[in-house]
Every structure is written in structure tokens, then in C-alpha cells.
Amino acid sequence: DAGITQSPRYKITETGRQVTLMCHQTWSHSYMFWYRQDLGHGLRLIYYSAAADITDKGEVPDGYVVSRSKTENFPLTLESATRSQTSVYFCASSVGTPSDLFFGPGTRLTVL
Amino acid sequence: AQKVTQAQTEISVVEKEDVTLDCVYETRDTTYYLFWYKQPPSGELVFLIRRNSFDEQNEISGRYSWNFQKSTSSFNFTITASQVVDSAVYFCALNAGNNRKLIWGLGTSLAVNP
After folding, report:
1. Whole-angstrom Cα distance, residue A35 to residue A42?
2. How many CA atoms are closer than 13 Å to the CA of A8, on its beta-carbon side?
3. Closest to A92 (Cα-Cα) out of B76, B74, B104
4. Distance CA A82, CA B107 (A)
């Protein structure tokens, strides 16, 4: 199906474990973004990518790693999960910036 | 500094009432873009509108309308004859200058009661 998908949709993990959240888009959009959404903080940008092999930090990049070897995929890895990383994670894509963002359905991550 | 303020944290209205969601922004750039997004209870984020700083025309889309006023640095969103399906969190966002990132407001939670 066309669009932007995220997997898994729900994940429970333990402190210290590595977790990878997947994001895939079928529009060939140049830009992709990872946000986290927490009560009281709204949406905060973790990392973004302007094209394959080009990534840059957002507001809250610590503890996260991204890669973008292909235009359509933008995985987000928590190298050693902490409880403070419990959140809802949204992937988004856009043709360029500034441009309308198209969001995936989100991944709800719980770190115990 | 760039900032977006949505002063209304929560609004509750009865169906068919009109409701306005406020958005005030701050930027020193002359070129900027403003956005509204909707997040219904199901959780997904949906783009509603983008407006650039050179276009102060108001926009109307069905029951939705947007009022952009540079003089007051505001980009307010009005829902006319609200419906229960309009219940959602609405976010205002700003992109200014050469910044590739969006500056988000904290959102306004709108509850439309039958």
C-alpha cells in the first residue's frame, strides 16, 4: 500500500536493550523525520534526513541512532533503551522543506 | 528565537457551536511558513493547511477557516458548526528562515460534545 508505515506499532522492552523502530515510505519523498510525542512536551524532533546517506540531529538526539541507506527507509535505533525513552514515536516524510509532513501511524514504545 | 504558542490547552464545546483555536508565533524572519495539523483520538497526525508569510489571504475549506494576521503574529483556526468528529488535538507549527525544522506548539485539545 502507498504511504508511510511504521513497525512495530507497539513495543515493550527492558532497560538496556537495543530497539529498532522501522519506517518505510512509498512516495520517494526526499525528507524523512523522527519525532517523539510526550505529554507536556508536544512533538520533538529526534533526527531527520534530507536524502539517502544524509542525516542530521534534531532537538533530542541523545540515545538514538539513525541511518538511511535507501530513500524509502529510515530506521531509528535506541542503542540502550532507558525509561525516559518511553514515548510515542512518529516517522514523517515530505517532498522538501518547508513542506507538508505526512506522518506514519506511530509506534508506542514502553521501556520497563 | 522562534516560538509557537497555543495558549488554549483544552477547549470543550457543544456540537454545532463555532470554535476558534488560537496560534501565536514568533520569528524575526520575513519568510516563514505556518501549518496546522490534526491529531484525532486514533493518534495519527494529519496535515490540514500550510500558509506562507507572503500570503495573508484567509483560507476556507468547508467548515474550516484560517485567519492569518501578520500584524498580530497570529494564525487562528476556526471550525464552524463543530461536529463530534472534530474532537482532536490540533497543532500549529512554524518553519522560518533556513531552518529545516518545524517549531511546534503544544497543541489544543478540542472536545466536541453531542
Report:
1. 10
2. 9
3. B104
4. 26
Q: How far is B15 from chain A (nearest CA, A)?
A: 27
A68 confidence band (pLDDT: 50, 70, 90) = very high
What's the mean pLDDT in A21-25?
Answer: 97
Torsions phi, psi for B72 (to 5 deg): -115, 10
Q: Closest Cα to residue A109, out of A5, A4, A18, A3?
A: A18
Across the interface, which of A43, A97, A106 has its CB nearest the CB of B104? A43
pLDDT band at A2 (very low <50, low <70, confident <90, very high): low
The residue ranking higher by pLDDT, A2 or A93, is A93
Residues whose CB falls within 8 Å of the CB of residue A38, separated by 6 or more in sequence, listed in order: A44, A87, A88
Interface test with B, best of A10, A41, A43 (most B CBs within 10 A): A43
**How far apart, in whole angstroms, are the C-alpha atoms of residue A46 and residue A76?**
9
